[in-house]
Design a protein that fits this description.
Its EC number is 6.3.2.10. With about 475 residues, the chain is α/β, with parallel strands linked by helices. It is about 30% helix and about 25% strand.
C-alpha cells in the first residue's frame, strides 16, 4: 500500500458528476454505520432502510464524507457531502472509475455453487503473488459489485470480483462494469429455477459472464456438465482462449484423482500434460473442483504454479461455508466433544449433496458419550427458489448415496417435510416448521462423539441451530475447512 487516499473529493466528484460540498479524502467506503471505519465515505443507499437516515450518525462516527442525493435533515450546512442525482448510479460510476484507473488483472467468478469459496481461494493464492483486492462476504449483486470495485485501491495487482444472480439478465451489466481478464463459471446446477425454465437457461445466464471479458481475455469453465456445450459456445464468442477443468477427457486441467479424508482433500491433476499434486485443508471433492478453476486462473495469468499450490493448501472456508470446529462438552475432560460442520449460509441441491458427502466421510468418535457409538447427524433447512419441482427435489435427497452413512437427519421447514417423510424410520429425526422450534430439542439430539452438519438456505435461519450447538460447550480446536 502507498498510503494514498482511496478517493479525494475532486476525484469522486469527477467520477460521479456530483458536487462536493467541501474538500475531503477517504480511505475506505461503507454502506453500514455498524461497520463503518473512521475515514470511510458513507454511501447512503436505499435498501431495507434509506441510508440518508443514517448520514448524521455516520459523520459523527468519523466518516470522511457521505455520498447522498440530498442533504438529509439534521445534517449541517458545512458537512462533507458528495451530492449526486442518484446514489446507486453514482456508486456504479465510482466502481467504473476505479476499474479504469487500475492497471492490474481482474478475475470474475460466478456459478450455481462454489463462487464464494472459489473467490476466497483466489484471494489466498493471488495474495502470494501480488497486492490483491477481493469482495467481502457475498457482495455479488447490483450494489455489491460496484461497491467492491469502488473500494479497490489504484495500486491493486489482482482483483477478484464475485458475481451472482437471481433472475435473467443480471450478470451481463455487472461483468461489463468489472471488465475481467479472466472469467470463471464454477458449475451450473438447478438453483433459482423459480426464475428460469430449466438448467439450460441458468447455464446461458452464467455464461454471460464471458460477455464482459477484456480483449484477449480467458474463459474458464467446468468440463463435466451436461450444459458444458452451452458454456463452450458462449465462451468462444467472447474469449480468445478457453480453459476447462474437470474429469472429462480433454479438459485443460484434467482431474485424475481426488482423495477425501476427514481433514483434507488431496488431488492430482494434469495441467497441459504435466502432473500437479495439490491439497486443500478441508474435506470435499467439490472443493478440489473449485481449486481446479483457481489453478486455471494461475495458468491464464502466467503466475507461479508452485507458489500457488503451496498457498492453496493454506486456505480454509469461512463461517457458515463448511467451517469445521470442535465443541468441547467438558471443561476438565478433553475427550467429550462434538464436531460441527457449519454450512448454514446457503443451500441448493448441488451444494446440499456436496455437504452431505462431506458428512458421510467424517470420522466419528466412539466410547466417549452416553451412547457408545458416535453418529453422523444432519440438520437440514429448506432450499429456496427451486420452482414447481421443489417438493420432489427435497424428497430425492433421501436417495443420495451419502445418506447410507448418515445416522440421523433432522428437517426444518415445510419443504424439508418432504425429505422427512421419505427417510427410512431409523434415519428420520425431528421435523420442525422453523429453526427456532428445532433449537429447543438440540441438547437431547446430540452426544459426545457425534459429527453434526447444519445446512439450509439463508432465509431458513439454520444459523440458529449452529449457535445452539456451540452453546452446548465451548470451542476446543478448529480444523481447517464453504458453499455456496
Amino acid at each position: 500500500m502507498t498510503g494514498l487516499p482511496l478517493w479525494t473529493a475532486i476525484e469522486a466528484a469527477a467520477a460521479t458528476a456530483g458536487v462536493a460540498t467541501t474538500d475531503w479524502e477517504c480511505t475506505g467506503i461503507s454502506i453500514d454505520t455498524r461497520t463503518l471505519e473512521p475515514g470511510d465515505l458513507f454511501v447512503a443507499l436505499k435498501a431495507a432502510r434509506d441510508g440518508h437516515d443514517f448520514v448524521a450518525q455516520a459523520l459523527d462516527a468519523g466518516a470522511a464524507a457521505a455520498l447522498v442525493s440530498h442533504r438529509p435533515e439534521g445534517v449541517a450546512e458545512d458537512a462533507p457531502l458528495l451530492i449526486v442525482p442518484d446514489v446507486q448510479v453514482a456508486l456504479e460510476s465510482l466502481g467504473r472509475a476505479a476499474r479504469a484507473r487500475m492497471n492490474g488483472k481482474v478475475v470474475a467468478v460466478t456459478g450455481s455453487v462454489g463462487k464464494t469459496s472459489t473467490k476466497e481461494m483466489l484471494r489466498t493464492v493471488l495474495t502470494g503473488q501480488g497486492q490483491t483486492h477481493a469482495s467481502v462476504a457475498s457482495y455479488n449483486n447490483h450494489w455489491g459489485v460496484p461497491l467492491t470495485l469502488a473500494r479497490m485501491p489504484q495500486e491493486t495487482d489482482f482483483a477478484v470480483i464475485e458475481i451472482g444472480m437471481n433472475h435473467p439478465g443480471e450478470i451481463a451489466p455487472l461483468v461489463r462494469m468489472a471488465r475481467p481478464h479472466v472469467a470463471i463459471v464454477t458449475t451450473v446446477a438447478p438453483a433459482h429455477l423459480a426464475a428460469f425454465e430449466n438448467v439450460e437457461g441458468i447455464a446461458r445466464e452464467k455464461a454471460s459472464i464471458f460477455s464482459g471479458l477484456e480483449r484477449s481475455g480467458v474463459a474458464i469453465y467446468n468440463a463435466d456438465l451436461d450444459v458444458t456445450p452451452i458454456l463452450s459456445e458462449i465462451a468462444e464468442q467472447h474469449s480468445s482462449k478457453q480453459i476447462t477443468f474437470g474429469e472429462a477427457e480433454g479438459a485443460t486441467l484434467h482431474l485424475k484423482s481426488a482423495t477425501v479424508n476427514d481433514s483434507c482433500t488431496v488431488a492430482s491433476v494434469q495441467v497441459a500434460g504435466k502432473p500437479v499434486l495439490f491439497k486443500v485443508a478441508v474435506p470435499g471433492r467439490h472443493y478440489a473442483m473449485n481449486a481446479l478453476s483457481v489453478l486455471g486462473t494461475v495458468k491464464a495469468l502466467k503466475l507461479d504454479m508452485a507458489i500457488a499450490v503451496s498457498d492453496l493448501g493454506q486456505w480454509a472456508p469461512g463461517a457458515g461455508r463448511g467451517q469445521r470446529e470442535v465443541i468441547s462438552l467438558d471443561r476438565v475432560d478433553p475427550r467429550p466433544t462434538i464436531e460441527l460442520i457449519d454450512d448454514a449460509y446457503n443451500a441448493n441441491p448441488a451444494s446440499m449433496a456436496a455437504s452431505l458427502e462431506v458428512l458421510a466421510a467424517a470420522e466419528v468418535t466412539n466410547d466417549v458419550g452416553r451412547i457408545s457409538r458416535g453418529r453422523r447427524i444432519a440438520y437440514l433447512g429448506d432450499m429456496g427458489e427451486l420452482g414447481p419441482t421443489e417438493a420432489d427435489i427435497h424428497r430425492d435427497l433421501a436417495t443420495l448415496p451419502s445418506m447410507e452413512k448418515i445416522d440421523r437427519v433432522h428437517c426444518i421447514g415445510p419443504l424439508m417435510r418432504n425429505l422427512h417423510d421419505a427417510l427410512p424410520a431409523q434415519k428420520r429425526g425431528r421435523w420442525a416448521p422453523d429453526a427456532a422450534t428445532m433449537v429447543d430439542g438440540i441438547a437431547k439430539d446430540l452426544d459426545a462423539g457425534d459429527v453434526v452438519l447444519a445446512k439450509g438456505s439463508n432465509y431458513t435461519g439454520v444459523g440458529r441451530v449452529v449457535d445452539a450447538i456451540r452453546k452446548l460447550g465451548h470451542p476446543a480446536a478448529k480444523a481447517n475447512e464453504d458453499n455456496s
